[in-house]
C-alpha cells in the first residue's frame, strides 16, 4: 500500500489536470475572406471589410465584408424578389422539405460548425458541440414540420406570411440565434435578411454554404455582415415587414422607437436579470450545479442567465461554501479543449464592461470572491466571480453584467423571495429550487418572467416558447408560439388597422 | 305639469370611487346639435397617475381570481347592463344623436360582447397555452398570463359605449386592469357604465375611466413606467406614432389605431397577455 | 396519533456523536428525513457531464494502473469451486503474465466458504490483515438477499472473519429499509460490524451493500448511505451485482457526495465501492474522474475506493497493452480467470 500511496501522490496532480484535448481544427476549411450572402451568392460588401478574431487568442480568423446601405438595399430587394416570385408561391410541404434538408446538413457538418463557433465566439467546445449546434439542427427539424401545418398554429385557418423579415442577432449564441430566427420565418413563408453580430459572423458564413448545398432558392435567406449601422439600416429599411431582434434592451428600445408607426411587426428578445431562488429544502447538490450552470454557462453571456442568486437566509453560508468549492473545480481556458468549462469573454469591450461593473460591485461594498484560475496570457478572460453581501440597490444586483459574475442575495420567506425576484424592470427568466412541488408551482405562478426553470436552469428546446415580460422584450421564440411572430391571422375577423398614421 | 328632472353629475371613475378631476376642471358635453347635456370632468395628468396607481393595486386581486370567477363577474356586468338598457339607449340617443333602434343595437351589441368575453375567462388559457413536448425529462407548460396594467384610448369616432366595451372587456378577461380614456365627445355612457361596474363585483381599480381630452392624457399614460400595455384603438386622430415611441421607453406592448370598433376576437385577449413557460424536472427515481 | 415505540438502538459511536446518546428509531428517522433531497434529472446530468472529461495520455497509463489497484476481483457464483477461486487468485496476483509490471488488484471477493481457498491460493501475496498485499473480501449476511435472521447473519460474518477474511461485504435489509424500519437496518449493521472484530481486537473492514437497484430512488440511496455510515460502515457499496441496475455513475456520484459531506462534517473518510456493471476501462475512468472531482484524488486509493468487478480487469489489460505496444490487442492476449 505504501507504494500505491507514493504513486498516487506523485501522479495525482497530473491526473486532474486532464489533457489539453483540443478539438481538431482540421474539420474547418475557412476562407481568408467572406463576402455578404445575397441572392444566393457571396458578394463583396461595399463598406470597409473588418476582421473577426478569436477572443481566446486575439488571432485573426478571417476578413469579413461590411454591408453598407446599398448592400442592405440589395439584400432586401433580393429577399423581396424571392418572396414575391418563389417562396410565397411554394407549398408549405416544399418549404418544409428545404428546412429538413438544412437540418440534416447542419447535423452532417455539426463538428465543423461547433469548432467554428468556439473559435469565433470563445465558448467551450463542449457547449457548442453538445448544446448550440444540436439545438440548431433541432430548431430546423421542428419548424420544418410546421411549414405545411400552419392552419394549426392557433391563428385560425390559412394564416398569412408577413413578407420580408429583417433579423438582427447577438454574439452570445451566433448560430443558435440564427436558427431561432430563420427556421420559423421560413416555415411561415417569409424571406429573410439577417445580420449576425460583428464579432461572431463566422458560423453564419458556413451556414450560407449549407444553404447553397441545400439548394435553397436564391434570395430566400440573405446574410449581411457588419456593425450596428448595418443593423440599423436593415431594421429601418422601408421594404421589410417584420423586425426580429435579440440583444440588449437599449438597442431593443431604439428599434421599438424607430419602427413605431411603420406597421412592421416586431419581436424583441432583450436583456434579463434573472433571479435563481434557492429554498432551504432544495436538492442541494443539484441546486449548486444549477447555480453554476445558470450563471457560468457560456461565460454568463446569456440573456436569461441566473445572475441574481436569491438564497434562503438559513442556508446562505452553506450554499456559498459549496458553490465556492464547486467553482474551484471549473476549468477555464482554450475554448477548443473538450475539458474546458469556461471559455473566453467574447470581446475586449465586453470584458471591459464586466470588469467595470465588478469594480462597482466592490466599491458598493459587496464582497468579491474569484475562483483561482490561471488566466491565459492572450485573449479576453474573466474568472468565475461571486459577490456576497450584495444589497438589492447595488448595480450588480440590478444591471445585466452579461458575464460570469453572480450576485448573492438572501430572503427569509417565499413572499420575500417573490418580491425580490420581481423587483426588476426585466422579466425574462427565473429559477426555483425546492423539493416541495406545491411551493414551486405557486412561486412559478407569481414570478413575472417568461421562462421559469424549476430544479433546472438554462434549458432550451425548439418546442418550448422563450421570451420575456416587461423590458425583456415581447414575442416568443420556439414552439407554436414562435410561429405567431411570423404570421398574420387571416381567417378570423381581424380588426382593420391603420398603417402610417399621423405624425 | 311636467316634473323637473334631476340631472346626474358625471365624474371620473378611479379605484372604484367617483372623484371629480383633481384639477377641478370640467368640459361641456352637448348633443350633436350643441344642446347642453352635462359637465363632464376634464381629467388631468394627475388623475391619470392616480388611475394607474389604482389599476396597479388591483392587479393582484383581479388576476388572482379564478377564471371562473372573473367570467362570472364579467357576465354580471352584462346582466346589470341589460337591466339598465333603457338608460343607456337614452344616453346614446342624446349624445350620439342616434335613432332609438341604432342606440338599442349598440347597447345590445355591447351587452352581448360582455357575454362573449365573459365566457373566455376560463378558456383562453387552454386555447392560447400549450403543453410542450421537449426532448428531455421535463414537464413543460406554456400558459398566458395578464400583462398587468393596460392603458387604453377608447374608440373616438362612433359608438361610444360599444367602442369602450370592445377594448376594456378583452383586456379584463385574462386579469389585466385598465385605465381607459373614454370617447371625448360622448363620454356619458362611459361614466354610466362605471356605475354598472361599481355594482357588479368588479373590484375597485380593475377598471378606471377617465373623461376629457385623449390628446392631453394619452401621452402621460404612454410614457408611464408602471403601465404594461398601450391600446391606441381610438388614437387615430392623435399623434399616435409619438405615443408609440413614448411607450417604447419601457417596451410596453402596443396595439395600434383601429378604424371603427374592434370586433370581438380572442386575439384582443391574447395581445394583453404574456406567455410563461415553466419547466420542471421529471423522474421516477 | 400513535407515537412510535422508541427502540434503544445498539450503540454506534458515529450516530451517538451526531444525533445524541438517546438514539432511538424516532430520532434516527428524523435525522434521515432531514437530509436534502435529490433531483434525479440534475444528478444524472452532472454524472453525464463528468463522463465527458477526457484525460491525458500520460494520465491514462496511470489511470489504468490505478483501476487495477482498485479492483475487487470477484467471483460470486453458485458454481464457485476451490479451483475457480484459485484461478481467480492467480489472476489477482499476476493480471498480465506478459507484463510483470502490471499492478496487483486490491482484493479478491468471494463467498464466505471460499475464503480459506482464496487465502491459501494467494499465499505470500495475501495481506492477511496487514496493509500490504491482496485482501480477501467475503460477502456475508445472507448475501445477496439478506433475508435471514440476525444471528445467522452474525454467524455468517464471524465465520468468514475467522477464516481470514480481511473485508466483509454485507448487505442491508432492504425490506426493513423500504418499510421505514431504519432502526432494524441500523442495528444489523452495528451488530455485523461487531462481528467483524477479530480475536486480536482489530476489525475486518466492513463494506455495506445498499443494493441501490432495489432501493430504487436516489432519495433512498442518500438515506441508506448516511444510515450505513452512521452505523459504522467503513465503505458504502452500491450493489451485489445480482440485481439490475447495479452500479451506475449517478448512484456512485450521489454516494460520493454523501461521503464528501460526511468528511466535511466529521473529518472522517469513508470508502465507496461501485460494484457490478462496470466492464470497460472507458467507464472505469469516468468513475475515477467522478471521484477526483467530487471528493478529491486522495480517494483514489484502495482503502477509500474500489471497483467490484470481474470482466473489467481484462478490458483494462487490453487497453494497457495498447498503450505499451501502440497497437490494439485482442481477447486472446489476456487470460480468462
UniProtKB/TrEMBL annotation, chain A:
Gene3D superfamilies: Aldehyde Dehydrogenase, Chain A, domain 1, Aldehyde Dehydrogenase, Chain A, domain 2
Pfam families: Aldedh
Matching InterPro entries: Ald_DH/histidinol_DH, Ald_DH_C, Ald_DH_CS_GLU, Ald_DH_N, Aldehyde_DH_dom
Keywords, ordered alphabetically: Oxidoreductase
Active-site residues, record numbering mapped to chain: 269
SUPFAM superfamilies the record matches: ALDH-like
Organism: Salinibacterium amurskyense
Similarity annotation: Belongs to the aldehyde dehydrogenase family.
Key word Repeat present: no
Domain Aldehyde dehydrogenase stretches: 42-488
Annotated protein name in UniProt: Acyl-CoA reductase-like NAD-dependent aldehyde dehydrogenase
Automatic annotation (TrEMBL), chain B:
Residues of the signal peptide: none
Record keyword GTP-binding present: no
GO molecular function terms noted in the UniProt entry: oxidoreductase activity
Transmembrane annotation, as ranges: none
Start and end residues of each Aldehyde dehydrogenase domain: 25-239
Keywords carried by this UniProt record: Oxidoreductase
Protein name as annotated: Aldehyde dehydrogenase family protein
Organism, as annotated: Salinibacterium amurskyense
Automatic annotation (TrEMBL), chain C:
Cellular component annotations (GO), alphabetically ordered: cytoplasm
Protein name, entry field: Deoxyribose-phosphate aldolase
Pathway linked to the protein: Carbohydrate degradation; 2-deoxy-D-ribose 1-phosphate degradation; D-glyceraldehyde 3-phosphate and acetaldehyde from 2-deoxy-alpha-D-ribose 1-phosphate: step 2/2
One GO term of the biological process aspect: deoxyribonucleotide catabolic process
Reactions performed catalytically: 2-deoxy-D-ribose 5-phosphate = D-glyceraldehyde 3-phosphate + acetaldehyde
SUPFAM superfamilies attached to this UniProt entry: Aldolase
Alphabetized InterPro entries for the sequence: Aldolase_TIM, DeoC, DeoC/FbaB/LacD_aldolase
GO molecular function annotations of the record: deoxyribose-phosphate aldolase activity
Pfam families: DeoC
Domain of life (superkingdom): Bacteria
EC number: 4.1.2.4
UniProt record similarity statement: Belongs to the DeoC/FbaB aldolase family. DeoC type 2 subfamily.
Organism name: Salinibacterium amurskyense
Keywords of the record: Lyase, Schiff base
